[in-house]
Design a protein that fits this description.
Alpha-Beta Plaits; four-stranded antiparallel β-sheet; homodimer; 26% strand; elongated; 12 strands; Molybdenum Cofactor Biosythetic Enzyme, Chain A
Chain lengths: 258, 258
């Protein structure tokens, strides 16, 4: 296995108070799955240096990469850069490349103190481009520090992704079964156990008075994945259960099981 | 201070793979703020027993309450109840009250094995009602175990909330300032530092080509909060900055600052 793992640390009191709904977790999770990085953990922590340092030190030693979002703006509660520097044990200094980027963005203006603060980067950090608003993120060791504003996070993620190692892509097939989850639980449990490398997940839904189950089969080996899907489908037919393959949620060409 | 703190553990591979967008974090965060519980941390972990046990043991010792969502259905990857039992060190047994609830819901039917699995509750756990689909959650010690399906999580949260201790409610006032965050950073940093018990957060926005900053002032002391807001407003006026109070995001009657 050449799996590459990652964690995401979302930094911000506004997520924990409920004021802001996080939009970065799902975007990053989907992106990681698509490029072949397995997101294994997410933590949302408050804007407190000791909390950020403690969580970052655990996560950066546990996973191949740690992404962070939030806390790199110009205000007093933007303490991500200083916390990352502290966790890694390097100084936080004004980065001349970052200063040049921001001066180029506001030609003829003297950089405000707030903007200068956003140019402070831990020593050894490489800049991550922000084509939306200028002020860069950075990558240092295995830690990738990005903005919390979703549009900015997304362009930063695009900029940094080519620099990351990736593993095999996790492929998936999705079925919608028009029966309660409890009636297919044994079948999917058995298939999950019998087929190493393939995992089956099931997600009940209640919609317009109907009860059903979405079943997702995942694995990196396309042939094995298709084989387990065909066995699953044969079993559903044998039990006269109604189902369909959800082609929108399926990453491969439809199976033919007629 | 009689603050009551909590953490949320979201359990589910489907959130980490990006297949499902979590809708429970923001709901629970908003609910906690409204009732006077301070949500201090969120973790999203995968459907692996050792991960759940490890995270739960840290969180339940660090906060007054730990909420969990997900992993209490009838399938092989629904391992939350067994993991909580293991973390706390009690057995997981078929709960007769839960069996009775589920039998009452499907009169005349023999409970399927899947449904019986959902009636297994750690010894000492008190049931949390699920008026949507029957199968209950539970509370054991300071751990509250709820479903991952948002509608079910929400009715469970309503059921359990009257049993929880709560602290002082955090009040907030929100202002929209039509200037970049960097131009107000020093002012809000100063007010934050000078006024213990009041925290100021700032959130830049980029909308329809306009740049601005949302500023939220929070605290439990209404008089002090209003006083700091008036000082903030007076300073914005002195600097000729455009702003308005965002009445939809503000939990108190509007200030009069004309």
């Amino acid at each position: 296995m050449n799996d590459v793992t990652a964690a995401l640390m979302v930094i911000g009191d506004e997520i924990l108070s409920g004021r802001t709904t996080d939009k970065n977790i799902n975007y990053l999770a989907t992106h990681c799955t698509a490029v072949g990085i397995r997101l294994e953990e997410v933590r949302v922590v408050s804007d407190k240096e000791d909390r950020i340092v403690e969580a970052l030190n655990i996560l950066r030693r546990s996973y191949d990469y740690v992404f962070t979002t939030g806390g790199i703006g110009p205000t007093h509660d933007d303490i991500t850069a200083q916390s990352v520097a502290k966790a890694i044990g390097v100084d936080l200094v004004e980065n001349q490349e970052a200063i040049a980027i921001m001066e180029a963005r506001y030609p003829g203006e003297v950089l405000s103190e707030g903007r200068r603060l956003m140019a402070r980067i831990p020593v050894g950090g490489e800049l991550v481009k922000n084509t939306v608003s200028g002020a860069p993120g950075f990558m240092i060791e295995n830690v990738i520090v990005m903005a919390g504003v979703p549009k900015i996070m997304q362009v930063m993620l695009d900029d940094v992704t080519p620099k990351l190692r990736t593993g095999r892509r996790l492929l998936s097939r999705t079925f919608v079964v028009q029966h309660p989850e409890s009636t297919v639980a044994q079948l999917i449990g058995r298939l999950d156990e019998e087929n190493e490398g393939i995992s089956l997940g099931s997600y009940p839904y209640f919609k317009l008075g109907k009860v059903g189950t979405v079943i997702v089969l995942r694995g990196v080996d396309e042939d094995l994945l298709n084989q387990v899907c065909l066995e699953f489908v044969a079993e559903l037919k044998r039990e006269n259960k109604d189902f369909e393959e959800d082609l929108e949620s399926t990453e491969l060409k439809p199976l033919s099981f007629d």
